[in-house]
Amino acid sequence: MSSTELPAVPPTSVLPEAAAVRVAEGERLRSVGLPGVTLSVRSRPPARAGLPPALFIHGLGGSSQNWSQLMERLEGVVDGEAVDLPGFGDSPPPDDGDYSVTGHARAVIRYLDAAGRGPVHLFGNSLGGAVATRVAAVRPDLVRTLTLVSPALPELRVQRTAVPTVILGVPGIAGLLTRTTGKWTAEQRVRGVLALCYGDPGRVTPEAFEHAVEELERRLRLPYFWDAMARSARGIVNAYTLGGQHGLWRQAERVLAPTLLIYGGRDQLVGYRMAHKAARSFRHSRLLSMPDAGHVAMMEYPEAVAGAFRELLASADASGGGPVVPGAGS
User: Fold this and answer.
1) Residues 291, 300: contact at Cβ < 8 Å?
2) CA pair distance 99, 86, nearest whole angstrom
3) In the 8-state DSSP scheme, what is residue 145?
4) Which of 116, 150, 282, 299 has the lowest CB atom count within 10 Å?
5) Which residues, listed in sequence order, are joined to residue 263 by a DSSP beta bridge?
C-alpha cells in the first residue's frame, strides 16, 4: 500500500480548476494506492491516542466530505477515516471499471486489510450502507459495530421520488442526461439534490451551499463523472435483483456486529417503511427513527446521530463488543 498526502485546501479559499477537493480545518486527505484501485482517504486526528478506529462510506454521488460534521463530533470517541469510493470524491475510477456494490465492497476490504485497522466501527449511508452491509457479512473480522444511515437495501416498491436514480442505471441514460442537462448550472443541480436528500433544505447554510456548488463544478469537469454515477446506480439496481446468499437482505441476516439503523421520515430515496424490516433482519440491531430527517441524517442532524452511536458503543462495550469471527478474504 502506497500513501501520498494531498495538499489541504483552506476552508475559505476558492478552488482552482485543477485543485483537490476541499479539506476542512482539522482534516487531512491522502491518496492510498492498492491493487487495482487508488482511494482518497479523509481523516481527522483523534482527541487522544488509543481510540478505536472507524471508517465512513458515503452514498451515490457523495464523497467523504459527507461525513465531516459527524467525524468532528466523534473525534473524542473514535479514530475516524472516511473513504472516497472509486470514481467519487478525489478517488479515480477503478482499473477494472467495476462499480457494483461488490466492487465497492472489495475496495473497502482491500483498504482495511492493507491498513491493518480492523476491526473498525463501520458507517455507511445509502449506497455506502449497502456496501457496508456486504463488508460486514463477508468479513465480520473487519467490523466491530455497524451504523447504517438510510441504507440502500432492496425495496419491493420503490418510492416515486427514487425512480430517477433507478433510471440513471439504464445503459445510455448517462449520455442522454449529459446532453439534455448541459445548460443547467451547478447551483440548479445542487438545489435539486438538496431538495431530494434533505428533510429540510433550509438547514443548509449559505456557506455549505457554496461549498457544494464548488465541489459539483469540480466533479462535472471530470471525464468519468457521469460514467461513475451511472455504473454505480446500475450496481445498486443489480444488487437489488440478486437472490440467494448474495442478496443484501440475506447478507443483513448474516451480520454479527451490533448494528445501529437510522431512518429519516422525510427520506425521498429510501422508504421509511423499510426501517422495521431492517430491524428484524439485522440480528443485533437498534433502530433510530428520525421523523424530520431526510436521506442524509448525519449531515442534517449530526449531534443526534453522534449521540445514537455513543449509545451503541456503550451498549457494545457493556456486552463485550459483540462477536468477531475470522473472515475468509475479499
Assistant:
1) no
2) 8
3) E
4) 116
5) 289
Spatial distance between the Cα atoms of 219 and 234, rounded to a whole number of angstroms: 20
Residue 303's SS3 state is helix
Count, in order, helices (H) and strands (E) of the chain. 12, 9
Asked if residue 199 has pLDDT above 60, the reply is: yes
Determine the residue type at 316.
A
Contact call for residues 149 and 198 (beta carbons, < 8 A)? no
By the 10 Å C-beta count (0-12 exposed, 13-18 middle, 19+ buried), 279 is classed as middle
Which amino acid is present at 80? G
Count of Cβ atoms closer than 10 Å to residue 268 Cβ: 18
The string of pLDDT tens digits covering residues 247-267 is 999 999 999 999 999 999 999
Across the chain, what does the average pLDDT equal? 85
Where does residue 96 rank: exposed (0-12), middle (13-18), buried (19+ CB within 10 A)? exposed
Q: Of 3.90.1150.10, 3.40.50.1820, 3.30.1380.20, 3.30.2000.10, which CATH number belongs to 2-6+17-318? A: 3.40.50.1820
Residue with cell 448474516: 254
C-alpha 41, offset from chain centre: 12
End-to-end alpha carbon distance in the chain: 16
Check the CA dihedral 125-111-68-8 and report its sign: negative
Residue 12: its pLDDT value, please?
26
Task: Determine the pLDDT at residue 42.
Answer: 97
Please provide the size of the chain in residues: 330
Identify the H or E element spanning 130.
helix 127-138
Domain range summary for the chain, segments of one domain joined by +: 2-6+17-318
Evaluate if residue 18 carries a pLDDT over 90.
no
